[in-house]
Design goal:
- It is a single chain.
- The chain is an alpha/beta fold.
- The protein has a single domain, classed as Aldolase class I (TIM Barrel, Alpha-Beta Barrel).
- It has an 8-stranded parallel barrel, surrounded by 5 helices.
- Helix 1 runs parallel beside helix 2 and helix 7 runs parallel beside helix 8.
- The structure holds 2-phosphoglycolic acid (PGA).
């Protein structure tokens, strides 16, 4: 089964116009070397316009870090509608990143609404899910992943997963320098596919599953060698061109196998 290989940079709340321009100059210059994979960057929303202009004409895709779950525009101060993201050229939008869940109280239900709204707006949702360290230690990793995934399948319907990406990001590995082992990542990804296959085997086999959590230039290759790991969602290492490009190179090397 050949699936899209994808490396997405999640800049989180980092960057400035100058820093973004310097980073993108290098990425745009090198991007054509990575034609076997898809490369995307998710800057803070205020930079989407500028970043979109700078990557215009290159194969790099644009993504947003979040969107409002509301389907209709209106009185939602501070929020950003999916149509606005689409208007500024976004292809992807992250939904349910663990920082949104843990710091901003996003529930499984709200994440599922965001997923649905993203697709209504013509965006490809990147559904982020993953267990905490406490979940892993008490043996509930699979139960947590199932709960987070099932909430979306229940709201959106299994067919919606045909046009989506899933990112497995164990919370204990995000920004900690403590990455999941390739075996741990593979086990979680295989579980997610089995869970989806209970509803639709074809969709389970075709949805790209990204790993995220302290991926860097050194560990990317061993993660991407896993049969159910189709690429990465990269935080810290996406802020440095050399590191991000090395990760893209690792994804592309896997693509050739
Ligand atoms: P990290 O972040 O690569 O800095 O661990 C990943 C993410 O949160 O998407």
């Amino acid at each position: 089964m050949s699936r899209t290989r994808l490396v997405i940079g999640n800049w989180k709340m980092n960057g400035s116009r100058d820093d973004n321009a310097a980073l993108l100059r290098e990425l745009v210059f090198e991007a054509k070397k990575y034609s076997a994979i898809e490369m995307a960057v998710c800057p803070p929303a205020v930079y989407l316009d500028g970043v979109g202009q700078q990557i215009g004409g290159s194969p790099i895709r644009l993504g947003a870090q979040d969107l409002c779950e509301q389907a209709a525009a209106g009185a939602f101060t501070g929020e950003i509608h999916g149509n606005m993201l689409k208007e500024f050229g976004c292809r992807y939008v992250l939904v349910g990143h663990s920082e949104r869940r843990s710091l901003y109280g996003e529930t499984d239900e709200r994440v599922a609404q965001k997923f649905v709204t993203a697709q209504v707006c013509g965006l490809v949702p990147v559904l982020c899910l993953g267990e905490t360290l406490a979940d892993r230690e008490d043996g509930s990793t699979e139960a947590v992943l199932a709960r987070q995934l099932d909430a979306v399948v229940a709201s959106a319907g299994i067919a919606a997963l045909r046009d989506a990406v899933i990112a497995y990001e164990p919370v204990w590995a995000i920004g900690t320098g403590r990455t999941a082992s390739p075996e741990q990542a593979q086990a979680a990804h295989a579980f997610l596919r089995r869970r989806l296959a209970e509803s639709d085997a074809k969709i389970a086999g075709s949805v790209p599953l990204l790993y995220g959590g302290s991926v860097n230039a050194e560990n990317a290759a061993s993660l991407f060698e896993q049969p159910d790991v189709d690429g990465g969602l990269i935080g810290g290492a996406s802020l440095k061109a050399s590191a991000f490009l090395a990760i893209c190179a690792a994804a592309q090397a896997r693509n050739g196998q």
